[in-house]
Amino acid sequence: MAEFREISSIEDFEGILDESQLRKVFIFKHSTTCPISARAWVEVQEFIQESSDEVLVVMIKVIESRSTSNFVAEKMTVKHQSPQALLISQGQVLWHASHQTVTKTNLTKALEGQNMPFNFMG
């Protein structure tokens, strides 16, 4: 199973960037009030269950941690969306998706390098 963490601060995110030097990291930006985001969260949970611990999955709740979410968008130069998934390795975004394209299948393909270098925006 993939490792999962929730982060809520810029300092947490900077630690995740450091960790991305060692392994790939998915950042999942989640809106706790959005039904599309709730569906995407189910997909992410299925991905976590079926993935190895070689990947880290990090959640940022965009309403509760807005400043962190905005910082991620600025630092990674990827326009904020929610739900949104970003695959990061060595501090760089390899792939990102939003809305209905945040699926277990797309996350798996991105991790395996099959969806890159495409960016899927819903």
Describe the protein in words.
The protein is an alpha/beta fold and 122 residues long. The protein contains 4 helices and 5 strands. α2 packs across α4 (104-111).
Topology of this protein?
Blueprint: E1 3-6, H1 10-19, E2 25-30, H2 35-50, E3 56-61, H3 66-76, E4 84-89, E5 92-98, H4 104-111
Parallel strand pairs: 1-3, 2-3
Antiparallel strand pairs: 2-4, 4-5
Helix pairs in contact: 2-4
Summarize the structure.
The protein is 37% helix and 24% strand. With 122 residues, it is of the alpha/beta class.
What best-fitting shape do the alpha-carbon axes yield? globular
What is the number of strand segments? Answer: 5
**How many individual helices?**
4
| CA gyration radius, whole angstroms | 13 Å
Terminal CA distance: 27 Å
Low-pLDDT segments, ≥5 res: none
Summarize the amount of helix as a percent range: 25-40%
| Major sheet description | 5 strands, mixed
User: Which strands sit side by side, in order, in the main sheet?
Assistant: 1-3-2-4-5
Multimerization state: single chain
Structural class: alpha/beta
Q: How much is the average pLDDT?
A: 93
Give, in order, the helices and strands: EHEHEHEEH
Approximately how much beta-strand content do the residues carry?
A: 15-25%
